[in-house]
Amino acid sequence: MHTPTHDSDFSRTVDKLADDPNPYEPAVGSMPENDMSQADLDNVNKTGTTTIGISTADGVIIATDMRASLGGRFVSNKNVQKVEQIHPTGALTLVGSVGGAQSFISTLRAEVNLYEARRGENMSIEALATLAGNFARGGPFFAIHPILGGVDDQGSHVYSIDPAGGVMGDDYTVTGSGMQLAYGHLEQAYEPDMSNEEAKTVAARGIKSAVERDTGSGNGVFLAEITGEGVDIHGHHDFDDVL
Question: Where does the record place Basic and acidic residues bias (predicted)?
Fold first, then answer.
């Protein structure tokens, strides 16, 4: 074997690898540090938001308001769809920073599609909730607190997923800046054997209660109806259309 010529391209490559104990192992990257200032955070588009998920005898109802704001003080968009289908029979809400929530939804939707392609069956909603919690805990999804709702062979499911990756299932749940106002209504109105149509009214009234007092919520309601047949989402700027 010939000795590489001094200062040749090959010799320089050998020098670079000299301190590497195993150059054949993959390089492990690192996540960029979050060095955003408070001024930067105030200019992030946030959903503010009130989102509600209710498990029913027929499936799941998810309701959200339609407002996005900058720093909670300026309305940046009055027609935001804050609930998206991510599974053939499941949907997720957007709560927190718009960018983080959109990235979170895209990532989960891709994982659901991969699971179906590889295994030839749909992911269970419980498995999807676990995956969502893992992503929230370990991924770069900034300031999110969504609701996941879905229907599978085990029945109807509603989960809240906190920013630290905690996953909690319940018959109904609320997240967002108007949650205390909406919870007050749901505590009085929820019934475990409600139909989807009854739950739509209860959820819409919960959103309306939050909109009346929470500046981060407003401009109407999106309603998602989830059954074993699929997901149906419609927006209403006038609450009278659904009450």
Answer: 1-19
